[in-house]
Amino acid sequence: MHALVSIHNAAFDLVERAGNWLLPLAARFVFAATLLMYFWNSGLTKLGDGIFGLVSPSIGAYSQIFPKQLEAVGYDTSQLGAFQWLVVVAGTWAEFILPLLLVIGLATRLASLGMIGFVVMQSLTDVYGHGVSDLKTHGAWFDRFPDGVILDQRLFWVFLLSVLVVKGAGAISVDALLRRRALPALA
User: Fold this and answer.
1) Which chain regions cross the lipid bilayer (predicted)?
2) Cα gap 69→112, rounded to integer Å
3) Band of residue 125 on the pLDDT scale cut at 50, 70, 90
4) How far is 9 from 181, CA to CA, in rounded Å?
5) Is the pTM of this model over 0.85?
């Protein structure tokens, strides 16, 4: 029995050591494969026309982020304030910048925290701003149905991002490259 336990421990010690560099890489790959284009396409819907579209969001951007406020001003974005403009522009930029940082593995822990905050705000906007209340879309935990967009899917997103907050980007990342370059300077 002791030999069996020793074999088990040796094998899973190897798995654990490999997991320290493989898990963050896999998490970044899964993010890139499933969510990168989701967020980038969402960001594209918020851009205004022309070169200044990055600072002049479309009406669709306001309708996605501030639906009730936009309706209250008769869909005239000029009646919204600087706060709404700042939130919409920052949210739009975040949909491009944060996913890119995650995929290349630069400032990964901070970018992951930013994305978690983004997903939480996105979910709150869906529920309170857009009034999503149907059980199929909203979902419920512990209900035997894993297909609710807001509670079920986004819990997986936050879990994936939490792995990157805890583990960092892993060995194959810009973060690791910068860390290796900084070590000789610190010694």
Assistant:
1) 21-40, 82-103, 110-129, 155-178
2) 29
3) very high
4) 34
5) yes
DSSP states of 57-117 as a string? --HHHHHHHSHHHHHHTTT-GGGS-HHHHHHHHHHHHHHHHHHHHHHHTSSHHHHHHHHHH
Q: What is the pLDDT of residues 48-96, one digit of tens each?
A: 998 888 899 999 999 999 999 999 999 999 999 999 999 999 999 999 9
- Percentages helix, strand, coil for the chain (3-state, rounded to 5) are 75, 0, 25
Domain ranges of the chain: 28-186
On whether the CB atoms of residues 178 and 122 are closer than 8 A, the answer is no
Helices then strands, each counted (H, E), the chain = 9, 0
C-beta of residue 90 within 8 angstroms of C-beta of residue 125 = no
